[in-house]
């Protein structure tokens, strides 16, 4: 019994000695390919604190935190341990049923050893991979997450986790040692199964994760083989530095090191080498002096001075005959033997130089102040204060939207508005192609403000002019609308500048230009077959439906036309020009306003009543659909033949189609063409309550795209034209009267001229 007590006492002394000097000499330095840095260790006497005890197990051997299943990938003395990420997943087969590998081990919970470890909120992000996917990180009743959606692999970009195939979000502030991960799918990946079959959700070190579109098609096993890592913060014990220092035997910080409590944990302590030292602060003499003299980038000695290394720093003694501290940012080295003249000349030169610098600085400050005053006057003139107020009413601000651009940035982007960068001119102003500081190509539009008689007038005269105010109001409406919405088929506003003589808008750039040019320019018309035209119509309808029903406040566009629909490289429709748009309160269905728009696209009922409604956009969309079908100009008059809409409706009544369709359209799609024609007829109804909603139009266009055909027995006796007409009647409402029933001459209105440039 006495012998056993002696042995136990010996082990205690050995452990205390090991703690005091660092660790035992026979402790393992690595496990697999991971280096083990003290204060971490494997086994008694090899670690500083029990929470830093590790274990090496498995074949091949892997390093783990104590007896847990958290596999260690890397240890950093700066306060982090990289462990293998826990990945939660859901995978499906082609029919939308859970795949076999979804039943494999799936550990959605992350629970670290309490008190001494915490999930790093600064280094990690919740990441979700998949094209029909959603993921959350949960702590009690609180949860946050992100969604990732894409309907085509072409929309997914490598290295980008902005929501197309991959999304990322910062971790919540209260997250510490425990969290639960969740992964789900909106449609069980049935619509994207060909290229994305699983949803993966995990917490990962953001700077070490580089997304690749190839991840979308990986199986659970293949995704786990990526060996992703999550950073966790660690600390020694729960005592503060002040308390820990009192126990000199167990205190971990050795010579030339300092103790600090990590902010992320708020408890325990860590050590770091003092300035001028580097190494491991947890082992005796682990913090070694840095030799600043061996590398000229580490010292600040002048050429005359000689660098002398010292513990924790260095000195720059001057050679014999010189005084000073020898440092470039200090006194330098000055000779004892300089004559009075030699001493005076540098002083005079310094004084003259200082005077020149000061005078130059004062002149530049004066110019800068005058420029700032002028820019502020332009800012007020161009409605900057009113814009800020309107954004504030919508729960935003100029600061949060980050849309303001400086005049210097736009000059740089356009090579000082070089003529070679002009891509469009018109009554609206001039559009330049520019390259922003972040590398994006943008369309930079300098607005032409008001009537020509305003040119050269003073600011006060301009701001008091009614024509000028109308243009400013349209400019503000466009900025407010585009700053508060986000949709794939609405052009993105990248910024605006109000500190120039005329305000500037910065949009996404689309080299294909607008739909008007592609329909009416015979050299371009052949690029858009019927399938492409149908896709453009559907995209436009989705944008208008979003504005009407899905935006936080309903928006009426007010000027839907083919010139206001831009096309990207894939011919995806992008609706633009919101200067005539209006926000609609939830309890209102219409607005009384001065009639404005583009001849040929205006709603007849709007012309008569001056009441702008969502159905006004539906009518204009119907005109665009007729343009796509016929290839004819909407606002043209042909002698006594009347308008395009009148000719189109008359041709439908006389069964003159399909001969009336554009010659560039393949007539093999006759059934689809007739369905689209009758949908256009419904949109062109004179009575607004007989027009379909944009959501109903999307449904019909989608059915046309998919070739859906639902004909009841009563329609089998009809000819193809009558059959299509009956189908449209059933889907979106009764037949419509001719627009010629109304007399637009009774209403006073303002027409815009059609623009054939790339941007409105």
From TrEMBL:
Its main location: membrane. Coiled coil: none annotated. One of its GO terms (cellular component) is plasma membrane. The keyword Transferase applies. Residues 417-704 form the Protein kinase domain. It holds the Pfam family GUB_WAK_bind. The keyword Disulfide bond applies. This is Protein kinase domain-containing protein. It comes from the Eukaryota. Keywords: ATP-binding, Disulfide bond, EGF-like domain, Glycoprotein, Kinase, Nucleotide-binding, Repeat, Serine/threonine-protein kinase, Signal, Transferase. ATP binds at residue 445. It catalyses: L-threonyl-[protein] + ATP = O-phospho-L-threonyl-[protein] + ADP + H(+); L-seryl-[protein] + ATP = O-phospho-L-seryl-[protein] + ADP + H(+). Residues 1-17 form the signal peptide. It comes from Nyssa sinensis. GO terms for biological process: cell surface receptor signaling pathway. It is found in: Membrane. It is a single-pass type I membrane protein. GO terms for molecular function: ATP binding; calcium ion binding; polysaccharide binding; protein serine/threonine kinase activity. Residues 289-325 form the EGF-like domain. Residues 710-760 are annotated as: Disordered.
């Amino acid at each position: 019994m006495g012998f056993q007590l002696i042995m136990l006492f010996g082990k205690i002394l050995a452990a205390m000695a090991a703690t005091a000097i660092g660790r035992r000499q026979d402790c393992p330095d690595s496990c697999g390919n991971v280096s083990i840095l003290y204060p971490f260790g494997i086994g008694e006497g090899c670690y500083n604190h029990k929470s830093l005890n590790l274990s090496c197990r498995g074949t091949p051997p892997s390093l783990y935190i104590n007896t847990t299943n958290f596999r260690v990938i890397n240890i950093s003395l700066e306060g982090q341990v990289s462990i293998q990420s826990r990945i939660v997943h859901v995978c499906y087969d082609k029919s939308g049923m859970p795949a076999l590998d979804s039943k494999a081990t799936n550990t959605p919970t992350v629970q670290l050893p309490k008190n001494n470890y915490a999930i790093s909120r600064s280094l990690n992000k919740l990441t979700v991979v998949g094209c029909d996917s959603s993921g959350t990180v949960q702590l009690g009743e609180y949860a946050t997450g992100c969604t990732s959606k894409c309907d085509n692999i072409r929309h997914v970009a490598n290295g980008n986790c902005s929501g197309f195939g991959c999304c990322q979000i910062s971790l919540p502030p209260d997250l510490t040692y425990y969290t639960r991960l969740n992964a789900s799918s909106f449609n069980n990946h049935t619509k994207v199964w060909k290229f994305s079959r699983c949803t993966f959700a995990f917490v990962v070190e953001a700077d070490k994760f580089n997304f690749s579109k190839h991840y979308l098609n990986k199986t659970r096993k293949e995704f786990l083989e990526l060996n992703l890592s999550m950073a966790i913060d660690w600390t020694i014990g729960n005592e503060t530095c002040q308390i820990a220092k009192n126990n000199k035997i167990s205190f971990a910080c050795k010579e030339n090191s300092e103790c600090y409590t990590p902010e992320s944990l708020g408890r325990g302590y860590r050590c770091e080498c003092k300035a001028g030292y580097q190494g491991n602060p947890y082992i005796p003499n682990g913090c070694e002096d840095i030799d600043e003299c061996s590398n000229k980038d580490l010292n600040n000695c002048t050429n005359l001075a000689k660098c002398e290394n010292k513990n924790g720093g260095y000195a720059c003694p001057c050679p014999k005959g010189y005084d000073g501290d020898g440092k470039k940012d200090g006194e330098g080295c000055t000779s004892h033997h300089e004559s009075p003249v030699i001493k005076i000349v540098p002083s005079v030169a310094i004084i003259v130089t200082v005077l020149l610098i000061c005078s130059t600085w004062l002149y530049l400050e004066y110019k800068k102040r005058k420029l700032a005053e002028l820019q502020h006057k332009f800012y007020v003139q161009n409605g900057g204060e009113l814009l800020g107020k309107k954004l504030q009413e919508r729960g935003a601000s100029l600061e949060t939207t980050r849309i303001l651009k400086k005049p210097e940035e736009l000059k740089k982007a356009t090579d000082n508005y070089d003529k070679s960068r002009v891509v469009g001119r018109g009554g609206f102003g001039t559009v330049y192609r520019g390259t922003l500081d972040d590398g994006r190509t943008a369309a930079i539009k300098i607005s032409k403000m008001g009537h020509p008689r305003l040119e050269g007038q003073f600011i006060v005269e301009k701001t008091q002019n009614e024509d000028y105010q109308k243009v400013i109001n349209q400019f503000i409406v466009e900025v407010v609308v585009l700053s508060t919405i986000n949709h794939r088929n609405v052009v993105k506003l990248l910024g605006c500048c109000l500190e120039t003589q005329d305000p500037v808008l910065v949009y996404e750039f689309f080299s294909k230009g607008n739909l008007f040019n592609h329909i009416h320019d015979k050299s371009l018309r052949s690029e858009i077959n019927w399938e492409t035209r149908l896709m453009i119509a559907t995209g436009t309808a989705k944008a208008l439906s979003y504005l009407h029903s899905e935006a936080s406040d309903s928006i009426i566009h007010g000027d839907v036309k083919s010139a206001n629909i831009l096309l990207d490289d894939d011919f995806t429709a992008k609706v633009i020009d919101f200067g005539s748009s209006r926000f609609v309160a939830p309890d209102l269905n219409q607005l009384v306003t001065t009639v404005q728009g583009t001849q040929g696209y205006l709603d007849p009922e709007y012309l008569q009543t001056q009441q702008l409604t969502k159905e006004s956009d539906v009518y204009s969309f119907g005109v665009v659909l007729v343009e796509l079908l016929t290839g004819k100009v909407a606002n043209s008059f042909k002698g006594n033949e009347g308008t395009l809409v009148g000719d189109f409706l008359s041709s439908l009544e006389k069964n003159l189609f399909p001969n009336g369709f554009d010659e560039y359209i393949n007539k093999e799609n006759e059934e689809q063409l007739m369905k689209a024609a009758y949908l256009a007829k419904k949109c062109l109804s004179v009575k607004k309550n007989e027009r379909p909603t944009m959501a109903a139009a999307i449904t019909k266009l989608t059915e046309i795209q998919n070739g859906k055909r639902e004909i009841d027995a009563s329609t089998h006796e009809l000819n193809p034209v009558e059959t299509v007409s009956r189908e449209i009647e059933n889907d979106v409402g009764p037949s419509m009267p001719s627009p010629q029933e109304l007399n637009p001459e009774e209403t006073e209105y303002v027409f815009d001229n059609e623009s054939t440039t790339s941007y409105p």
